[in-house]
């Protein structure tokens, strides 16, 4: 059994994740439930899968680090792949991303989220546990800017999950490990690259958080993700990541730049046979900013529950809105094509790939019978399809 066949089977089953472990059958997470089926996979086969994905040039990096992150389009499915060493051998954890371009409507999110990206500066945090759809929500917010405004957007991700075609906005995507050595370096570079919007894939280290806060204070709109279960916990987690002696200064900085916090979790709808995001939305009102400055995070919960007039949503109120909603987008029931194109799927390299602009006539369609993963040759190329709307028209003006 080949890796592309396993991914194709997982996608056909509606799985969100595929787990491969030597000597064990493949495990799929379908609607949040892990299901194991099939024959055990030989350790040698998984090692060959991993080596074909990583490539001979980067294989020594995996051997040294014992883990490797990448994104790849396989059998038409965009995948985020983590390859790691376990007690049994080489294992793979594969996240299957949506086949359609993420938008607020297609993710069944509340339309109020579109208002957040109308701000020209500040910080928007998207929080939630692992696998709750934070990356999809971030992609939907970026796509909303792309379709409505002429802004320069730079994304820093590890790895790139959703790819974008420039519509009205001008979008650059950088992958940590391939296009930049770290989140910190990419954020330092971005401040010299004239961005209007920055998207930080994940804030893990205090230095990344510090640079993200600084960027949001210098006239940029910054979108970032953080792991937490509620909006109040997201703010508290950012503050507690710093040493105690500077937490007061960090909280003041966070209060000054914060626009909103979106915390989400997935809720399965049996009537639709899909999972939809259930959100908690905290707006940075004067009262909320004051609670952040004084580090009274427990008071944020009551402010959120009573802040409906300011555009805030508690989980309970959002759930009632979902129950009353009738027009849901269900994947597979629409014939429209995805609004994204796969970009450079090559393994991480130290050299920067050249940027090439390919006209429509030269673009190639995917073969109905793609080659095996181990035989696929990657091309260092990022294609941006020219568009006669928005940014393209501005460039043509005398």
Question: What would your notes on this structure say?
Answer:
The protein is α/β, with parallel strands linked by helices. It has helices spanning 3-12, 43-54, 59-65, 113-116, 134-148, 183-190, 206-217, 231-240, 247-257, 286-293, 299-305, 315-324, 391-396, and strands at 15-20, 26-30, 33-37, 67-74, 77-85, 90-96, 122-127, 152-157, 170-175, 197-200, 221-226, 258-269, 274-283. A hairpin with a 2-residue loop joins strand 4 (67-74) and strand 5. The longest helix is centred in the middle third of the chain and has 15 residues, at 134-148. The protein is globular. 38% of the residues are buried. Mean pLDDT is 84; it is low at 335-392.
Strand numbers in spatial order across the main sheet: 9-8-10-11-7-12-13
Q: Please report the distance between the alpha carbons of the first and last residues.
A: 58 Å
Overall pLDDT confidence: 84
Give me the number of helical elements.
13
Question: Approximately what portion of the residues adopt beta-strand conformation?
Answer: 15-25%
Give Rg in angstroms: 21 Å
Globally, the shape reads globular
Structural class: alpha/beta
Unreliable spans are 335-392
Order of helices and strands: HEEEHHEEEHEHEEHEHEHHEEHHHH
Instruction: Report on the biggest sheet.
Output: 7 strands, mixed
* Total strands: 13
What percentage of residues falls in helices of 4 or more residues? 25-40%
